[in-house]
Amino acid sequence: MVDQPKRIIQVRPTARPAQMRPRHLIAAAGGLFGVVLPLSLLAIYLWVFATPQYQVIAGFTVRQEEGSSLQSTGLGGLVQLGGLTAPRGDADILYEFIRSGDLAMRLDQELDMIAHYSAAYSRDPLFSLNPEAKATDLLRYWRRMTSLSYDRASGLIEFRLRAFSPEMALALSEAVISKSETLINELNLAARENLLEFAQIDLAQAGADLTLARGAMTDFRTRSQIVDISSDLQGRMGVLNTLQQQLAEALIATDMLAATSGENDPRLAQSRARISVIESRILQERASFASADPMGGNGRDYPNLLAQYEALATEQELAEHRYAAAQAALEMAQDNLARQTRYLAVFIRPALPDDADYPKRGLILTLASLFAGLIYVVLTLAAYALRDRR
Question: How much of the chain, in percent, has pLDDT values that exceed 90?
């Protein structure tokens, strides 16, 4: 029996203990100088050099009395009745005004805002304003130090402002509210003056229309020599009714006479002649209401006269209504001019802050640590991947 050759299994030697390599030192140095050192410097800056910031919160909206607003229509100014509303147009204007550089410049002129925010620039350039800041720099910094939220549905505006001292934060917030009230008052005055001007124009136009309507009615009465065509027609209808009554009496008398006398009775012929005359007159009276000239040029065209009179009377009545409505609108506009119909309603009054809420040191350092660590890990993995591909 032949012995089978033995199978030899080679075992690799055990790994040697890990040793510090130059790449390890480079990675550690990168972590030290790229993560630990910047974060330490940031922490020192935040807790030692960063200037505390005090925040003040204010909330307000624009309110308007519905019952005091006028709308100009074809019949003059009409009054809207109701309670209070929030005019969205005024709230939009106020929102843009607070964010504008015009307000920032006004506050700087009144409270020397640049001097306050740039006082600590040499020690805290990250959160302070450059003393040589221009108008655009001031606007950018103003929007950075303020937060504005606006609900268009309700018209509510919430305003947050930060400053380096509690007193300055409160003073700036109160100044913002004061400037906003001034703006609303100016808009209110301009709107009331416009309403008064439009009401005066409407009244003048309504007065001119009423004068023309009355002049046309006077000219009609002069031409027709009829003061009131309705009364004239009623008189003619009275004549017609009288003729019809006389006709009925004559017919009855003729029938009674015919029953008691012969055909040759002269009274019967006279009675029949009277009936004929009355009937002829009734026909003429009736024709005068529908004929343009029933009397050979000496009568009146009552259908045409009646149509003219009704048109002129309707026009005069409408002109009188327009004039009365315009007078009411003018009185209401004058009343609105004497009082304020729009005003700024403050529902969150600014108060002196007790503690500094900004800068958010813990939050800033945490976010910086996350980003620095993420960048360090990504760069380290990329470096090892490039090394392995060689």
Answer: 12
